[in-house]
Specification:
This protein is of the alpha/beta class. 25% of the residues lie in helices and 12% in strands.
């Protein structure tokens, strides 16, 4: 552009000088005649070359906030990162369903075996009498495969008396400890209308020598399944049955049996 302006200025100056001399000035080839036909020659106005407009800067793409930030709960810290628009927004993961509660296990069936009671029984002087069983609770009839120290016995045959039914076994240490006490009670109340029956499910060959060794004086019935009918779960365990055939007391033979017998003798004297 500057060269063009200089060239035009030179041509114009040469034309002016040629006019003054009366000689036509030679124009360079390719340059149009820009002198006016009449009047004094004038230097034409060269239009200003427009500046190249500045290329506008590409606007920054606004960052897309995280979906979790948009759904943030007030009071919680905002997310640490902002994802670009092209970055996929991860979907909220669904928490795994809790494991179903285990079904309650069914109780194990009763095997019918007796368990010996452990620990020392409460002394008779300190043990309160157990409340009587509900009225009309008839005592189940007893059964035994054999009897020692007596003829075969039944509750029906002892109706009208107070009956003490005890469940025990030769292998049970607390049962062994109760034998002297039961011998004493038997000797005290056998002539006062009180009958004693001591039942075990063991065979004769086991019970008979044991009874002789322990000097058991009261009637013993062996091979008996009656503990199931009485729902006995631990031995030794005794029951008192009134003259009407109803259960009125139950518990450990060493824990209040003597007092319970005395109380029942006053409440329902034997016939």
């Amino acid at each position: 552009m500057n060269r063009l302006l200089c060239l035009i200025a030179i041509v114009t100056l040469a034309a002016v000088l040629a006019g003054c001399r009366g000689e036509p000035a030679e124009e360079p080839a390719g340059v149009p005649d820009k002198t006016p036909t009449a009047g004094a020659p004038a230097v034409p106005n060269v239009p200003a070359v427009p500046e190249t407009p500045a290329v506008p800067e590409t606007p920054a793409v606004p960052a897309v906030p995280d979906k979790d930030a948009a759904n943030a709960v007030p009071g919680e810290a905002p997310p640490d990162t902002v994802r670009a628009p092209s970055e996929p927004v991860p979907e909220a993961s669904t928490p795994p369903a809790p494991d179903p509660a285990p079904a309650p296990s069914e109780p194990a069936p009763m095997t019918g075996e007796l368990v010996a009671m452990t620990g020392e029984p409460t002394p008779a002087a300190e043990a309160p009498d157990k409340p009587p069983a509900p009225p009309a609770k008839t005592a189940p009839e007893i059964e035994a495969a054999y009897w020692l120290n007596s003829d075969p016995l039944t509750l029906a045959g002892e109706r009208g008396k107070i009956v003490v039914v005890e469940f025990w076994a030769t292998w049970c240490p607390p049962c062994r400890a109760s034998i002297p006490h039961l011998n004493e009670l038997f000797n005290t109340y056998k002539d006062k209308g009180v009958a004693f029956m001591s039942l075990t499910n063991e065979p004769r060959k086991t019970v008979e020598p044991f009874a002789k060794q322990m000097k058991m004086a009261y009637p013993v019935g062996g091979g008996s399944p009656s503990s199931r009918a009485y729902k006995v779960k631990g031995i030794p365990h005794a029951f008192i049955i009134n003259p009407a055939g109803e259960v009125v007391w139950e518990g450990h033979p060493m824990a209040g049996l003597d007092k319970a017998i005395e109380k029942q003798l006053k409440a329902t004297p034997p016939k």
